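User: I'm writing a tutorial on reading structure tokens. Could you give me a worked example: one chain, its sequence, then its tokens, then a sentence or two explaining what the tokens reveal?
Assistant: Sure. Here is the example chain.
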Amino acid sequence: MLQKRIVVCLDVKDGRTTKGIKFQNNLDIGDPVAMARFYYEEGADEIVFYDITASAERRKIMLDLLAQVAKAIFIPFAVGGGIASIEDIRMVLLAGAEKVSVNSQAVRNPDLIVKGAKLFGSQCIVLGMDALRDPAMPSGYRVIIDGGRTPTELDALAWAQQGEKLGAGEIVLNSIDADGTQEGYEINLTRLISEAVNIPVVASGGAGRPEHLAKVLTQGKADAALIASLVHYGTYSIKQIKEYLAGCRIAVRLDY
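And here are its predicted structure tokens:
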């Protein structure tokens, strides 16, 4: 049985880790380098670093900062935010990331996925997707870009399938409706996408209790669960979460 992964997300703004609710009212919660190291030592399976204002501000990602994070951890490290070109992908990988997450810029230029996968391998290219409930869309979910600021005409399910065909090796699927609420993942959305693609899907947005992870990893059929508020505020440790999941007969890495 394949192990399910626990991925800790660091949303970074102005060089500091931040956390908000539904992409708003973000608060400074710490130094991303120190936090990444802490979560690595606690047993996180992966770290994701998002420069959350890079795309909206049309600027490059903070390479110096992500290089410091990469040196502090020895688990897979994914980076997203403002990555708009093959050269951007190259520089992020050279700075120490194993994966590059493309979101807003991939919507504007889908060829970024194609070329990135061809040059660096599909395993390096993650399609980040922020979805919002919208009954006007065929699947019931609309893709939103620029950190929740700009609605698109893309249906979430169709875009996920297209992203896989273009060459993405993984999808990080974030529910804007659930983001930061700590009331549980969007199970329907996660299952809808997970059943429609053949690449790993990482569920994101809404974790508040270990039970939420168990539900999205089973009923939602996600391959991994991304967490932030759940651990950032000290509510639970990664060890507590993993031991709960193991108790639910969900395969997780416990060798830490």
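What the tokens reveal: The first helix runs from residue 32 to 42. The chain has one domain: 5-247.
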